[in-house]
Amino acid sequence: MFTMYGVVAIFVCSFLQYSGADFPDDPKPCKFGDEDCLLKAINFYLHEKNQGDASINLLKIDPIDAGTFTLKQGADNPVNIDLTFSNNKITGVGDASAYKVRGFGKDLTKKHELRFKIPVSSLIGDYKIQGRVLILPISGSGKNNITMVDADFVLQWVGVPLEKDGATYMKTDKFRVMIKPSKVLFNFENLFNGDKALGDNMNLFL
Hints:
CATH topology: Bactericidal permeability-increasing protein, domain 1
Keywords: Biological rhythms, Signal
Protein name: Protein takeout
Family: Belongs to the TO family.
Organism: Ceratitis capitata
Oligomer: single chain
Radius of gyration: 19 Å
Pfam families: JHBP
């Protein structure tokens, strides 16, 4: 569960990479509050432009270079770990589909919501872990693969109008993420210095 939230955070950032794009007129721009149009536009860019498009300043999102990041859980928790991921990539974002849009009307200060489904999304790369799970010390380094299956993402936020160069843009505030995967699969290779029995059991526990 601890690691899953880190994956969610990186996944959400992948969608936010679209915010700097200069979108063209094809597909056509949507009118305020036109939910059907917005769904079609979002899915067009997810499925047709997930490899990026330099002509409109659109970044590649499948796979996503997640780089290096560290997740920590405090000493008062039964799972007390310091987990660093490096050279990681996230796959599967291009297969995501938006199925519900709410908001995006003329009043940007209202609540906005996007809902996505993604069949399979994986975080793959290198890891290093140190810490304790219950009473068992845990350590290891090697390859990692964390996969979420049939995940439902809900993104909610409140808009804040931003005036720039004579145009009005929307900043996000009170951003909230909810996720419901049918299952999450963990595979950290070389846990406990390669002890297969301990490593397999720990991957199941996580």
